[in-house]
Amino acid sequence: MAFGWIDEQAELRRRAGLVRTLRPRAAGTPPLDLASNDYLGLARHPEVTEGAARAARTWGGGSTGSRLVTGTTELHTELERELAGFCGFEAALVLSSGYAANLAAVTALAPHGTRIVSDAGNHASLIDGCRLARGTAQVAAHADPDAVRKALDGHDGPAVAVSDTVFSVDGDAALLARLAEACRAYGAGLVLDDAHGLGVLGDGGRGARTRPDSRAPTTSS
């Protein structure tokens, strides 16, 4: 069989206890969820659900095309304008998911010849972005700006450091001020995934980047 190896790999994963099973939630399930990313409880907020329903009635159930062709609506541009203003950026770009945003950011900012220094605790989407980018990825010890400096030292070409602001698995935070200082010292860019900081940290929930000790030129997804 051409794909017989799939069954073999599946059996190995089963024996190792790595098989995961989906557990669908029923409508009306009591909203006690200790594993959710919905920190602020906005997913069920009446204004959010009504806004989503109103948008569906106005624009339909899908974009009907890619953003570059026919898929961009006034809602997209309005949201991007408001997000940029809220976060203090010149502009914002909304993608379909955080995973897509990280792949887009890393691959766009790490062309051929770029040294990519990725934190060992980064989310899988950042790791995949590093793998897909045309630069050369090097993993640095978790939350260790000195390790980032060491990885950047001696590289003459373009370089970028990639890190979560708040790491989703352990819940600890990157040392942003020192990380930004290391990047400035070596002329490297800094890409931050603030998915778990935006709305929770910073002035008015504007994200980890807005903390007084961590201001730095960044790209946040």
UniProtKB/TrEMBL annotation:
The keyword Lipoprotein does not apply. Residues 202-221 are annotated as: Disordered. It catalyses: 6-carboxyhexanoyl-[ACP] + L-alanine + H(+) = (8S)-8-amino-7-oxononanoate + holo-[ACP] + CO2. This is 8-amino-7-oxononanoate synthase. Keywords: Pyridoxal phosphate, Transferase. Its cofactor is pyridoxal 5'-phosphate. The keyword Ribonucleoprotein does not apply. GO terms for molecular function: 8-amino-7-oxononanoate synthase activity; pyridoxal phosphate binding. It comes from Streptomyces haneummycinicus. The lineage of its organism: Bacteria, Bacillati, Actinomycetota, Actinomycetes, Kitasatosporales. One of its GO terms (biological process) is biotin biosynthetic process.
